[in-house]
Design a protein that fits this description.
By secondary structure, the chain is an alpha/beta fold. It is built from 15 helices and ten strands.
Length: 421
């Protein structure tokens, strides 16, 4: 053996090992295989965003979850065998687990168990940047974990920075852990109250100017659109919840000033604790004069996403706002060809391509909701001018409500309005 080979033998892998995960979902009555695959794809994307790699998916058809272990005993044995054989690090369920289900599953599987809410909470904890967002997420996470503690859990002592980071011995008694968490929750609530007082003061200073908020399902391109409008460089990446912190920018279009805010994206089964803890951040939406609802039209379930966003807006008391509906990412879908183009295509080709008819879609939303949607692609600039004209038109309506006799030659002192929360 050469000297070089002996040196190589002494080398050890220093890069952190990526955690592996298996996903588990129940197939409920009336759900199609396509819908189940779509939900699991989203769960896999969430898992990837956390930093883990999905290695297998388990599904089971059941009318309702098993009260003890969520899945049936046979399916649980199947999951257990796979986890042990392939040394999987975590099992992630697409629904929320009760505290007893969580304890029973960790006792049976001997690995970390995540449900959907905990997964989202941990992603938020990773991506939060401001003191307010960090405090809100940490509070929501501790409130969620309190009734779910087991001796196996290391979540209480883990630090931000990835799923491979672990800390602490995990040997504390559960009651001691609960007492520590209750104390931490009290401190976080006090800290959040102080931060919210500052937020209320900031929002009061914005009176007298139109406020616009971007809303939408997560990963639909809100931050990309924000960058386009404001000509700034806010983080925009192809990951779920790329934006957790609320960002506010001043914009002036056609001599009309307004404030534009980019807030956290919504998602199916957004944890209740998270919605409650993000109350002050969601006030940006509640107190807005106009909402820009951004939709990823290239996603096969975009209509379900619209329903989720509308439902969440209702839950936070913001469903009565004027809305500019924007169908984004049109460059990723096949638009309905003209009659002349269709004549040159076969029926099979027309069926397989699954074309979207933008005109019919616009007519449907206009008839049902009285909304004239805009179709665009923010990333490559398609139809940007059409969007800009629609935005100016809607902002002018709100501005006129505030200043009925506004003259375009007037100027408004905007000092102090530009900020980033």
């Amino acid at each position: 053996m050469s000297k070089y080979s002996r040196k190589l033998q002494k080398l050890h892998e220093t890069a952190p090992k990526q955690d592996t995960a298996v996903l588990v979902a129940l197939i409920k009555q009336g759900q199609s295989d396509h819908q189940v695959d779509e939900y699991l794809d989203e769960l896999a994307f969430l898992t990837e965003t956390l930093g883990a790699k999905t290695v297998y998916r388990f599904t089971q058809r059941m009318e309702k979850p098993d009260v003890r272990t969520f899945v049936g005993s046979g399916k649980l044995e199947e999951i257990q065998a796979y986890v042990q054989h392939f040394e999987v690090d975590m099992v992630i369920f697409d629904d929320d687990l009760s505290p007893s289900q969580m304890r029973n599953l960790e006792n049976e599987l001997k690995v970390k168990v995540y449900d959907r809410s905990l997964l989202i909470l941990d992603i938020f904890l990773q991506r939060a940047q401001t003191a307010q967002a960090k405090t809100q997420v940490e509070l929501a996470r501790f409130q969620y974990l309190l009734p779910r503690l087991t001796r196996m859990w290391t979540h209480l002592e883990r630090q931000r920075g990835g799923t491979t980071t672990r800390g602490g011995s995990g040997e504390k008694e559960i009651e001691t852990d609960k007492r520590d968490i209750r104390g931490r929750i009290t401190l976080l609530k006090e800290k959040l109250r102080d931060i919210e007082k500052q937020g209320v003061t900031q929002r009061k200073s914005r009176k007298g100017i139109v406020r616009v908020s971007l809303v939408g399902y997560t990963n639909v391109g809100k931050s990309t659109l924000m960058n386009l409008i404001t000509k700034t460089d806010i983080l925009a990446e192809n990951k779920l919840f790329a934006t957790v912190d609320s960002t506010v920018r001043k914009v002036v279009l056609e001599n009309i000033p307004f404030l534009l805010s980019d807030t956290v994206g919504f998602i199916r089964k957004l944890p209740t604790h998270l919605i409650e803890s993000f109350k002050s951040t969601l006030d940006e939406i509640r107190e807005a004069d106009l909402l820009i609802h951004v939709v990823d039209i290239s996603h096969p379930g975009f209509e379900d996403h619209i329903a989720v966003v509308n439902q969440t807006l209702t839950e936070i008391g913001a469903s009565n706002k004027p809305v500019l509906l924007v169908f984004n990412k049109i460059d990723l879908v096949d638009q309905m060809p003209t009659d002349e183009e269709q004549m040159q295509m076969t029926e099979i080709e027309l069926e397989e391509r699954n074309f979207l008819d933008f005109e019919k879609l616009a007519e449907a939303y206009n008839k049902k909701f009285g909304i004239n949607p805009v179709f665009m692609a923010a990333e490559n600039g398609t139809n940007v001018e059409e969007f800009r004209e629609a935005l100016v038109r809607e902002v002018k309506k709100e501005h006129k409500k505030m200043y009925p006799h506004y003259l375009e030659s007037e100027t408004i002192d905007m000092s102090g309005f530009e900020e980033e929360n």
